[in-house]
Amino acid sequence: MKYRIFAVVVLFASSLMAQSNPTPPASAQGSGGPIFSFHSRGTFAQFFSFQNNSDVFLSVSRNGEAGQQASTFLNFSSFTFNSDGFTDTFAFGQIPNESLRSGGDKRVSLNVDLSQVSSFQITTCTFNFTNFTFNCQPGPFGVVQVDWVQDGNFSTHLLSNERQQFFQFTIHTQQDSDSSSASVSGSVTGIPVNNGFGNIGVHHDTQMEFFKN
């Protein structure tokens, strides 16, 4: 029963994201090779939240394979509708390892000031329905502070080959992981996160590839 509930939650969150984000032309959907890739074996946490006309998706992963230097990867997307149009932000890159702290399998905390991470990439695009202008620029490079606490609602083992299409990027993920549901609180570059579909767990062998739309 818990696995069935998880499937419904994932499908509902995916449906919201698909409805919110316009589909780029077929010629722009992840053509060419990946612009960035990341392999993860270690702690991860993610969530999807929708409130006040904004949806936010965030995922953070640790790679701690034996014999290799540890690394931590963060990506997130926010999409906001307003009366004149919409604003879309997409961000990805490596962050300092100390930004992600884990309390066993019960709690995960993320705290990073992206203005201090020079290699991190953030692009915000704004479209205005009134005059049909479209503008993209770097940023905002603010603080991301999120806490996950396991709530015991469901747990799952996931083997998947998934392609998520956002407004600016497409993410191809091949995932082998175990996770449990979690409550979520915090903020992402000024956007408050007080509820959402969250989970924390461990990647056993997960590969992520990012394509520019």
Descriptive overview:
This protein has 213 residues and is mainly beta. The chain has one domain. The protein is built from one helix and twelve strands; from the N terminus they run H-E-E-E-E-E-E-E-E-E-E-E-E. Strands 1, 2, 3, 4, 5, 6, 7, 8, 9, 10, 11 and 12 form a twelve-stranded antiparallel sheet that branches. The model is unreliable at 1-30 (pLDDT under 50).
Largest sheet: 12 strands, antiparallel
Shape: globular
Q: Give the strand tally.
A: 12
Helices and strands, in N-to-C order? HEEEEEEEEEEEE
Instruction: State the domain count.
Output: 1
User: What's the mean pLDDT score?
Assistant: 84
Helical fraction equals: under 10%
Low-pLDDT windows of residues: 1-30
Q: Give the CA-CA distance, first to last residue.
A: 38 Å
**CA-based gyration radius:** 17 Å
Strand content: over 45%
Structural class: mainly beta
Count every helix, treating DSSP H or I runs of 4 or more residues as helices.
Answer: 1
Based on the model shown, name its key terms.
mainly beta; single chain; 213 residues; disordered N terminus; 1 helix; 12 strands; 12-stranded antiparallel β-sheet
Topology of helices and strands:
Elements: H1 2-20, E1 36-51, E2 54-63, E3 71-82, E4 85-95, E5 100-103, E6 107-113, E7 121-128, E8 133-138, E9 143-165, E10 169-188, E11 191-193, E12 197-212
Antiparallel strand pairs: 1-2, 1-12, 2-3, 3-4, 4-7, 5-6, 6-9, 7-8, 9-10, 10-11, 10-12
